[in-house]
From TrEMBL:
Biological function: Exhibits S-adenosyl-L-methionine-dependent methyltransferase activity.
Entry EC no(s): 2.1.1.-
Organism: Aeromicrobium ginsengisoli
Record's protein name: S-adenosyl-L-methionine-dependent methyltransferase
EC class name: transferase
Amino acid sequence: MKSATTASRTAVLVCQGRAVADTWDDVERFADPTAARLLLDDEQAAVDLASDDAPPPGWGLRVEWEMLRATAEVIVPRTVAIDDALREQVNAQVVILGAGLDGRAWRMTELAGSDVFEVDHPASQQDKRSRARDLSPVARDVRFVPVDFGRDDLGEALTAQGHRVEVATTWVWEGVVPYLSRSEVEATMRVIGDLSAAGSRLIVNYQVPSAKAALGRLVMRAMTTLSRRPDPLAGEPTRSTWTALTMRELLEVHGYAVVRDVDLLTLATDTGRPVRQRRSLANGRVVVAELS
Ligand SMILES: C[S@@+](CC[C@H](N)C(=O)[O-])C[C@H]1O[C@@H](n2cnc3c(N)ncnc32)[C@H](O)[C@@H]1O
Protein backbone atom coordinates (compact mmCIF):
# COMPACT_ATOMS: atom_id res chain seq x y z
CA MET A 1 0.00 0.00 0.00
CA LYS A 2 1.19 3.54 -0.68
CA SER A 3 2.45 5.48 2.29
CA ALA A 4 -0.22 7.80 3.67
CA THR A 5 1.98 10.87 3.41
CA THR A 6 4.32 10.57 0.44
CA ALA A 7 3.52 11.09 -3.20
CA SER A 8 3.99 8.11 -5.51
CA ARG A 9 7.54 7.73 -6.84
CA THR A 10 6.40 5.23 -9.46
CA ALA A 11 4.10 7.94 -10.85
CA VAL A 12 7.19 10.12 -11.37
CA LEU A 13 9.12 7.20 -12.89
CA VAL A 14 6.46 6.46 -15.53
CA CYS A 15 6.10 10.18 -16.27
CA GLN A 16 9.86 10.32 -16.81
CA GLY A 17 9.49 7.31 -19.12
CA ARG A 18 6.90 9.20 -21.17
CA ALA A 19 9.15 12.29 -21.26
CA VAL A 20 12.07 10.17 -22.55
CA ALA A 21 9.87 8.49 -25.19
CA ASP A 22 8.58 11.89 -26.29
CA THR A 23 12.13 12.74 -27.42
CA TRP A 24 12.46 9.58 -29.56
CA ASP A 25 12.12 10.28 -33.30
CA ASP A 26 11.78 6.65 -34.32
CA VAL A 27 8.67 5.85 -32.30
CA GLU A 28 5.34 5.98 -34.08
CA ARG A 29 1.93 7.00 -32.74
CA PHE A 30 3.23 8.14 -29.36
CA ALA A 31 3.37 11.72 -28.12
CA ASP A 32 3.12 13.15 -24.64
CA PRO A 33 4.28 16.76 -24.50
CA THR A 34 2.77 17.14 -21.01
CA ALA A 35 5.16 14.64 -19.41
CA ALA A 36 8.21 16.92 -19.30
CA ARG A 37 6.06 19.79 -18.06
CA LEU A 38 4.96 17.77 -15.04
CA LEU A 39 8.50 16.98 -13.92
CA LEU A 40 10.67 18.82 -11.41
CA ASP A 41 14.10 20.06 -12.50
CA ASP A 42 16.13 17.13 -11.12
CA GLU A 43 13.67 14.62 -12.61
CA GLN A 44 13.94 16.36 -15.99
CA ALA A 45 17.75 16.34 -15.75
CA ALA A 46 17.63 12.53 -15.50
CA VAL A 47 15.29 12.49 -18.53
CA ASP A 48 17.75 14.62 -20.49
CA LEU A 49 20.53 12.11 -19.76
CA ALA A 50 18.30 9.14 -20.64
CA SER A 51 17.25 10.76 -23.91
CA ASP A 52 20.84 10.52 -25.12
CA ASP A 53 21.60 7.14 -26.74
CA ALA A 54 25.11 7.27 -25.26
CA PRO A 55 25.14 6.09 -21.63
CA PRO A 56 26.49 8.58 -19.08
CA PRO A 57 29.74 7.90 -17.22
CA GLY A 58 29.57 6.41 -13.72
CA TRP A 59 27.61 3.51 -12.26
CA GLY A 60 24.86 5.56 -10.53
CA LEU A 61 23.92 7.61 -13.58
CA ARG A 62 24.15 4.52 -15.77
CA VAL A 63 21.65 2.58 -13.59
CA GLU A 64 19.17 5.47 -13.78
CA TRP A 65 19.75 5.81 -17.55
CA GLU A 66 18.93 2.09 -18.00
CA MET A 67 15.86 2.29 -15.77
CA LEU A 68 14.36 5.30 -17.53
CA ARG A 69 14.97 3.89 -21.01
CA ALA A 70 13.49 0.53 -20.03
CA THR A 71 10.48 2.32 -18.52
CA ALA A 72 10.06 4.41 -21.67
CA GLU A 73 10.02 1.31 -23.84
CA VAL A 74 7.25 -0.28 -21.78
CA ILE A 75 5.26 2.95 -21.49
CA VAL A 76 5.03 3.60 -25.24
CA PRO A 77 2.77 0.65 -26.23
CA ARG A 78 0.80 1.00 -22.99
CA THR A 79 0.05 4.67 -23.68
CA VAL A 80 -0.77 4.10 -27.36
CA ALA A 81 -3.14 1.20 -26.54
CA ILE A 82 -4.98 3.23 -23.91
CA ASP A 83 -5.15 6.41 -26.01
CA ASP A 84 -6.55 4.38 -28.94
CA ALA A 85 -9.18 2.76 -26.70
CA LEU A 86 -10.19 6.18 -25.34
CA ARG A 87 -10.50 7.69 -28.82
CA GLU A 88 -12.53 4.78 -30.21
CA GLN A 89 -15.44 5.72 -28.01
CA VAL A 90 -15.40 9.07 -26.26
CA ASN A 91 -17.76 9.22 -23.29
CA ALA A 92 -18.88 12.37 -21.49
CA GLN A 93 -17.28 11.12 -18.26
CA VAL A 94 -13.73 9.75 -18.00
CA VAL A 95 -12.47 8.43 -14.67
CA ILE A 96 -8.71 7.93 -14.38
CA LEU A 97 -8.04 5.64 -11.43
CA GLY A 98 -4.63 6.12 -9.79
CA ALA A 99 -3.99 9.00 -12.19
CA GLY A 100 -0.47 9.83 -11.02
CA LEU A 101 1.06 12.26 -13.53
CA ASP A 102 -1.25 11.19 -16.36
CA GLY A 103 -1.44 14.08 -18.86
CA ARG A 104 -4.47 12.99 -20.87
CA ALA A 105 -6.78 15.73 -19.58
CA TRP A 106 -4.15 18.26 -20.67
CA ARG A 107 -3.18 16.75 -24.03
CA MET A 108 -6.05 14.74 -25.58
CA THR A 109 -8.22 17.19 -27.52
CA GLU A 110 -10.70 14.33 -28.06
CA LEU A 111 -11.69 14.89 -24.42
CA ALA A 112 -12.92 18.45 -25.10
CA GLY A 113 -16.48 17.31 -24.41
CA SER A 114 -15.64 15.13 -21.40
CA ASP A 115 -15.40 15.69 -17.68
CA VAL A 116 -12.26 13.97 -16.42
CA PHE A 117 -12.25 12.70 -12.84
CA GLU A 118 -8.69 12.22 -11.62
CA VAL A 119 -8.75 9.72 -8.76
CA ASP A 120 -5.56 9.21 -6.80
CA HIS A 121 -4.05 8.69 -3.40
CA PRO A 122 -4.38 12.06 -1.58
CA ALA A 123 -0.60 12.62 -1.26
CA SER A 124 0.05 11.82 -4.92
CA GLN A 125 -2.84 14.00 -6.00
CA GLN A 126 -1.68 16.99 -4.00
CA ASP A 127 1.73 16.65 -5.65
CA LYS A 128 0.13 16.40 -9.12
CA ARG A 129 -1.99 19.49 -8.54
CA SER A 130 1.01 21.59 -7.69
CA ARG A 131 2.95 20.29 -10.71
CA ALA A 132 0.01 20.89 -13.09
CA ARG A 133 -0.92 24.36 -11.87
CA ASP A 134 0.59 26.11 -14.92
CA LEU A 135 -1.02 23.74 -17.44
CA SER A 136 -4.42 24.35 -19.02
CA PRO A 137 -6.65 21.33 -19.46
CA VAL A 138 -8.08 20.53 -22.88
CA ALA A 139 -10.78 18.37 -21.32
CA ARG A 140 -14.09 20.13 -20.59
CA ASP A 141 -13.41 19.90 -16.88
CA VAL A 142 -10.93 18.20 -14.55
CA ARG A 143 -12.18 17.17 -11.12
CA PHE A 144 -9.77 15.91 -8.51
CA VAL A 145 -10.99 13.03 -6.33
CA PRO A 146 -8.60 12.08 -3.51
CA VAL A 147 -9.08 8.40 -2.65
CA ASP A 148 -7.00 5.68 -1.03
CA PHE A 149 -8.34 2.50 -2.64
CA GLY A 150 -7.50 0.56 0.50
CA ARG A 151 -9.42 2.84 2.86
CA ASP A 152 -11.84 5.26 1.23
CA ASP A 153 -15.23 4.90 -0.42
CA LEU A 154 -14.53 5.46 -4.13
CA GLY A 155 -18.23 5.58 -5.04
CA GLU A 156 -19.05 8.25 -2.47
CA ALA A 157 -16.01 10.31 -3.44
CA LEU A 158 -16.87 10.25 -7.15
CA THR A 159 -20.52 11.09 -6.54
CA ALA A 160 -19.49 14.01 -4.31
CA GLN A 161 -17.47 15.40 -7.23
CA GLY A 162 -20.44 15.19 -9.60
CA HIS A 163 -19.99 11.78 -11.27
CA ARG A 164 -23.40 10.73 -12.60
CA VAL A 165 -24.36 7.09 -12.53
CA GLU A 166 -26.79 7.45 -15.45
CA VAL A 167 -24.12 8.79 -17.83
CA ALA A 168 -21.74 6.38 -19.62
CA THR A 169 -18.19 6.51 -18.27
CA THR A 170 -14.82 5.51 -19.65
CA TRP A 171 -12.67 4.13 -16.84
CA VAL A 172 -8.88 4.13 -17.24
CA TRP A 173 -6.91 2.01 -14.78
CA GLU A 174 -3.28 2.20 -15.87
CA GLY A 175 -0.25 1.07 -13.91
CA VAL A 176 -2.16 0.75 -10.64
CA VAL A 177 -3.58 -2.79 -10.35
CA PRO A 178 -0.16 -4.34 -9.53
CA TYR A 179 0.12 -2.07 -6.47
CA LEU A 180 -3.24 -3.10 -5.04
CA SER A 181 -4.14 -6.34 -3.23
CA ARG A 182 -6.64 -8.67 -4.87
CA SER A 183 -9.34 -7.56 -2.42
CA GLU A 184 -8.66 -3.88 -3.20
CA VAL A 185 -8.89 -4.60 -6.93
CA GLU A 186 -12.14 -6.55 -6.41
CA ALA A 187 -13.64 -3.81 -4.21
CA THR A 188 -12.71 -1.12 -6.76
CA MET A 189 -14.17 -3.22 -9.57
CA ARG A 190 -17.43 -3.52 -7.60
CA VAL A 191 -17.71 0.29 -7.50
CA ILE A 192 -16.85 0.55 -11.21
CA GLY A 193 -19.66 -1.93 -11.95
CA ASP A 194 -22.13 -0.07 -9.71
CA LEU A 195 -21.36 3.32 -11.31
CA SER A 196 -21.31 2.18 -14.95
CA ALA A 197 -24.24 3.08 -17.21
CA ALA A 198 -24.82 1.23 -20.49
CA GLY A 199 -22.17 2.28 -23.02
CA SER A 200 -19.43 2.48 -20.42
CA ARG A 201 -15.94 1.33 -21.31
CA LEU A 202 -13.20 0.02 -19.05
CA ILE A 203 -9.50 0.01 -19.94
CA VAL A 204 -7.23 -1.85 -17.52
CA ASN A 205 -3.47 -2.31 -17.62
CA TYR A 206 -2.34 -5.23 -15.46
CA GLN A 207 0.57 -7.61 -14.97
CA VAL A 208 0.47 -11.38 -15.40
CA PRO A 209 2.26 -13.63 -12.86
CA SER A 210 5.92 -14.16 -13.73
CA ALA A 211 8.73 -15.38 -11.48
CA LYS A 212 11.30 -14.04 -13.97
CA ALA A 213 9.73 -10.57 -13.91
CA ALA A 214 9.75 -10.55 -10.10
CA LEU A 215 13.43 -11.54 -10.15
CA GLY A 216 14.22 -8.83 -12.73
CA ARG A 217 12.55 -6.26 -10.52
CA LEU A 218 14.62 -7.39 -7.53
CA VAL A 219 17.83 -7.13 -9.58
CA MET A 220 16.94 -3.62 -10.74
CA ARG A 221 16.21 -2.59 -7.16
CA ALA A 222 19.50 -4.08 -5.91
CA MET A 223 21.41 -2.20 -8.62
CA THR A 224 19.64 1.02 -7.67
CA THR A 225 20.52 0.52 -3.99
CA LEU A 226 24.15 -0.24 -4.85
CA SER A 227 24.31 2.86 -7.00
CA ARG A 228 23.03 4.93 -4.01
CA ARG A 229 20.25 6.42 -6.16
CA PRO A 230 16.70 6.80 -4.77
CA ASP A 231 14.69 3.62 -5.43
CA PRO A 232 11.33 4.59 -7.00
CA LEU A 233 9.92 1.12 -6.34
CA ALA A 234 10.76 1.07 -2.60
CA GLY A 235 7.40 2.30 -1.27
CA GLU A 236 5.17 0.49 -3.77
CA PRO A 237 5.62 -3.29 -3.79
CA THR A 238 3.79 -5.46 -6.32
CA ARG A 239 0.72 -6.87 -4.61
CA SER A 240 -1.41 -8.54 -7.28
CA THR A 241 -1.05 -10.15 -10.67
CA TRP A 242 -3.83 -11.53 -12.87
CA THR A 243 -3.99 -13.93 -15.77
CA ALA A 244 -6.04 -12.96 -18.83
CA LEU A 245 -8.62 -15.49 -17.63
CA THR A 246 -8.92 -14.25 -14.03
CA MET A 247 -9.07 -10.65 -15.25
CA ARG A 248 -11.82 -11.54 -17.74
CA GLU A 249 -13.77 -13.33 -15.00
CA LEU A 250 -13.44 -10.30 -12.71
CA LEU A 251 -14.75 -7.93 -15.37
CA GLU A 252 -17.59 -10.25 -16.39
CA VAL A 253 -18.87 -10.51 -12.82
CA HIS A 254 -19.52 -6.78 -13.03
CA GLY A 255 -21.20 -6.84 -16.42
CA TYR A 256 -18.24 -5.95 -18.62
CA ALA A 257 -17.52 -7.97 -21.77
CA VAL A 258 -13.91 -8.06 -23.03
CA VAL A 259 -13.44 -6.47 -26.46
CA ARG A 260 -9.71 -7.23 -26.61
CA ASP A 261 -6.87 -8.08 -24.23
CA VAL A 262 -3.40 -7.69 -25.72
CA ASP A 263 0.12 -8.01 -24.28
CA LEU A 264 2.46 -5.03 -24.54
CA LEU A 265 5.03 -7.01 -26.54
CA THR A 266 2.53 -7.48 -29.36
CA LEU A 267 1.54 -3.82 -29.12
CA ALA A 268 5.19 -2.70 -29.08
CA THR A 269 5.87 -4.24 -32.47
CA ASP A 270 3.41 -1.72 -33.98
CA THR A 271 5.27 1.31 -32.67
CA GLY A 272 8.29 1.06 -34.94
CA ARG A 273 11.08 1.02 -32.36
CA PRO A 274 13.33 -2.01 -31.87
CA VAL A 275 12.08 -4.15 -28.97
CA ARG A 276 14.56 -4.79 -26.12
CA GLN A 277 12.49 -5.26 -22.95
CA ARG A 278 10.80 -8.41 -24.26
CA ARG A 279 10.13 -9.95 -20.86
CA SER A 280 8.66 -6.83 -19.22
CA LEU A 281 6.56 -6.15 -22.28
CA ALA A 282 5.27 -9.72 -22.48
CA ASN A 283 4.06 -9.59 -18.86
CA GLY A 284 2.06 -6.38 -19.18
CA ARG A 285 -1.38 -6.37 -20.78
CA VAL A 286 -4.11 -3.89 -21.68
CA VAL A 287 -7.69 -5.14 -21.63
CA VAL A 288 -10.55 -3.12 -23.15
CA ALA A 289 -14.07 -4.06 -22.06
CA GLU A 290 -17.56 -2.68 -22.60
CA LEU A 291 -20.82 -2.70 -20.73
CA SER A 292 -23.89 -2.85 -22.94
C1 LIG B 1 2.81 3.69 -11.40
S1 LIG B 1 1.79 5.00 -10.88
C2 LIG B 1 0.73 5.08 -12.31
C3 LIG B 1 0.20 6.44 -12.51
C4 LIG B 1 -0.59 6.64 -13.80
N1 LIG B 1 -1.76 5.84 -13.87
C5 LIG B 1 0.29 6.39 -15.00
O1 LIG B 1 0.21 5.32 -15.60
O2 LIG B 1 1.09 7.28 -15.31
C6 LIG B 1 0.74 4.26 -9.65
C7 LIG B 1 -0.37 5.18 -9.16
O3 LIG B 1 -1.25 4.41 -8.31
C8 LIG B 1 -1.57 5.19 -7.19
N2 LIG B 1 -1.90 4.30 -6.07
C9 LIG B 1 -1.18 3.23 -5.62
N3 LIG B 1 -1.78 2.71 -4.54
C10 LIG B 1 -2.92 3.45 -4.32
C11 LIG B 1 -3.96 3.41 -3.36
N4 LIG B 1 -3.99 2.50 -2.39
N5 LIG B 1 -4.95 4.34 -3.45
C12 LIG B 1 -4.94 5.28 -4.43
N6 LIG B 1 -3.98 5.36 -5.37
C13 LIG B 1 -2.98 4.46 -5.31
C14 LIG B 1 -0.34 6.02 -6.91
O4 LIG B 1 -0.64 7.17 -6.13
C15 LIG B 1 0.13 6.35 -8.32
O5 LIG B 1 -0.44 7.55 -8.78
